[in-house]
Automatic annotation (TrEMBL):
Pfam families: Methyltransf_31 (PF13847). Keywords: Membrane, Methyltransferase, Transferase, Transmembrane, Transmembrane helix. GO terms for biological process: methylation. The keyword Transmembrane helix applies. This is Class I SAM-dependent methyltransferase. Residues 99-209 form the Methyltransferase domain. GO terms for molecular function: methyltransferase activity. The chain crosses the membrane at residues 12-36, 42-61.
Length: 263
């Protein structure tokens, strides 16, 4: 059995955009070019409207197809796998330790961390909302079984308010989660994540940490150091480590950054 980690570009969105492109092009031909049942100004107006719709849909479709291929776990580039493996390598569990993956989606990062730390176990949490309907708790469990991973489990949870006491875990991690949570202070979300990390525990949080979304992250790093954290680093992952700057631009992943360290 092969794991199915899905694609970060929902297939439903891709299909809808392709359908919209075909439909708008068809309407452009019917009304704008051939003028079926319309003429004069109406034909011009419809031609312009459907022409603009076709161009917009075609552009978005082109981007989605490109992104889908780049992120695919079965494709040639496998950017998703590179990001997951690159994040997981910063997570270390002690003998019998427990790590937490927040916003686990299809379970891929949870499983990657569990495979790297057979001496411990990982817990993946997610709310599995309708935005990513193809991701689910049963899917995570099936993927763990497909990988032969028995030291990973999954449950529902909320990244905004974690249902765990302070210092519950030996490691915490997440990948491209917090930028999706609208209306919340991103640095506060990070502090909530780090709240459940034990003293001496490791963390690796990958997200789009642009100043517009996260504010001054250098000041945040200093804040953690002032709080007594042993090590805190910000790593630009669009410098060729995970992806090139050009790829980040094409994929709208500007600000991709890995926050790593030890409490």
């Amino acid at each position: 059995m092969k794991p199915d980690y899905k694609n970060w570009i929902p297939k439903g969105m891709l299909v809808s955009l392709i359908a919209g492109t075909v439909l708008s092009f068809t309407l452009l031909l019917v009304f704008g070019v051939f003028g079926v049942c319309v003429s004069g100004k109406l034909r011009v107006v419809l031609g312009v409207v459907f022409g603009i719709a076709f161009v917009v849909c075609a552009k978005y479709t082109q981007w989605c197809v490109y992104a889908y291929r780049v992120f695919s776990y079965d494709g040639e580039r496998k950017l998703s796998k590179q990001i997951i493996d690159g994040t997981a390598e910063h997570i270390t569990l002690p003998e019998g330790g427990v790590g937490l993956d927040i916003g686990c989606g299809s379970g891929v990062l949870t499983i990657a961390c569990a495979k790297r730390n057979p001496q411990g176990k990982m817990i993946g949490i997610d709310r599995w909302g309708k935005e990513y309907a193809s991701f689910s708790l049963p899917l995570c469990e099936k993927n763990a079984a497909a990988e032969g991973v028995k030291n990973a489990s999954f449950r529902r949870g909320n990244a905004v308010k974690l249902d765990f006491p302070d210092e519950s875990f030996d490691a915490v991690t997440s990948n491209y989660v917090y930028h999706n949570i609208t209306g919340k202070d991103k640095q506060q979300l990070l502090l909530e994540t780090l709240r459940v990390l034990k003293k001496g525990g490791t963390f690796a949080i990958h997200d789009l940490m642009s100043p517009r979304r996260y504010g001054d992250m250098q000041a945040f790093v200093q804040k953690l150091m002032d709080m007594g954290y042993e090590r805190v680093e910000l790593m630009d992952t669009a410098d060729g480590s995970f992806m090139t700057s050009k790829e980040a631009g094409h994929l709208m992943l500007h600000g991709s950054t890995l926050l790593v360290g030890r409490k």
